[in-house]
Structures
1.
Amino acid sequence: DAMVIQNPRYQVTQFGKPVTLSCSQTLNHNVMYWYQQKSSQAPKLLFHYYDKDFNNEADTPDNFQSRRPNTSFCFLDIRSPGLGDAAMYLCATSSRQGAYRETQYFGPGTRLLVL
Amino acid sequence: AQTVTQSQPEMSVQEAETVTLSCTYDTSENNYYLFWYKQPPSRQMILVIRQEAYKQQNATENRFSVNFQKAAKSFSLKISDSQLGDTAMYFCAFITGNQFYFGTGTSLTVIP
């Protein structure tokens, strides 16, 4: 089945220690998103890629970076995690074409714990 | 400013009954897409239903239907014959161009 995969599902890191979360997709979608979701809150968009075109949200901290080496993979790098960065990180994909254009398909998320 | 408002933080419904979740949005755009997403406890966010703004006909997906009122900028979700598996957080979302907005969510509990 075509899907959005996130690894790892749970990540524990230490305060200030860089961490990378990964996302891959088999949907061949040209848009990939990263969201941060804290408990019982709406997902907050951090940034998205339209093909290789990177779009950063204005209020995304510089501590968060992203890479998209090819269509299938996208990475979220947190350079110096703080306690406030503990959250669920959601990856999503969408296509700008087709009957279901702009519909976002979400991965299961990576829960990040910062010690 | 473009926003999405879900005015009901929590709702409950008896199993087999019908419930309506409200969502209003604000935009000056004419072309956009509206979605309802469901996020069960500790589980993945999944699409419930989508609506394209240029389509006047309300979308339906089995027990789920929407009441899309473009002039009023309203996009409510009706769940018929509620089931225990419908217990989840429901998010209304609005997308236009490169802009994405989620509402704050409605936590729905289906009571046996």
Note: The first strand of chain B starts at residue 3 and ends at 5.
2.
Amino acid sequence: AQTVTQSQPEMSVQEAETVTLSCTYDTSENNYYLFWYKQPPSRQMILVIRQEAYKQQNATENRFSVNFQKAAKSFSLKISDSQLGDTAMYFCAFGAQGGSEKLVFGKGTKLTVNP
Amino acid sequence: GAGVSQTPSNKVTEKGKYVELRCDPISGHTALYWYRQSLGQGPEFLIYFQGTGAADDSGLPNDRFFAVRPEGSVSTLKIQRTERGDSAVYLCASSRGSGSYEQYFGPGTRLTVT
């Protein structure tokens, strides 16, 4: 069974600065995907970024980028130029390729961006 | 186009009652998932539909929980004899199907069992 661990329950950052959220996972699968989802108080889970395990290049989406270390089973999210609208819960998730492709989530990190 | 919608947004029920939660996936999405999110936790998988059939129901906690998707679109999660421990946010997600790997979530239904 896969597990996802987010070791930072809460983090804060000043507006316009950079913050990194940590995530580690455990799996015996070789083919899988990793995701970061954002959940604002509205409860809507929004996909921020995804990484295919077979790709060595780290994914980027505008101000969001990941540091994917497959051997270490680490998948951190870097948010650059933080904005007030980035305040939310952030969840790291694992999805094995094939089968049901259900997602296994971590417990989340509550990020607060301060003005 | 429209995203995933869920109704009701909030549901309060008494212990022992029966409830139904509805999910309308994105049009054309063949895969549909139900997750449960307890307070302070990440979502936990309940059941997965590919088309009309439940392809993976390994996350359903017990036989009080059941879900259907009779026409391969709308899905209903049904909970019998509700217990206070069933209180949570129930999230629905859909994706284009096997191999798409991107799930789009609805806003969830907050269920409170008193």
Note: The interface with chain A takes residues 31, 33, 35, 40-45, 48, 55-56, 59, 89, 91, 93, 95, 98, 101-108, 110 of chain B (CB under 8 Å).
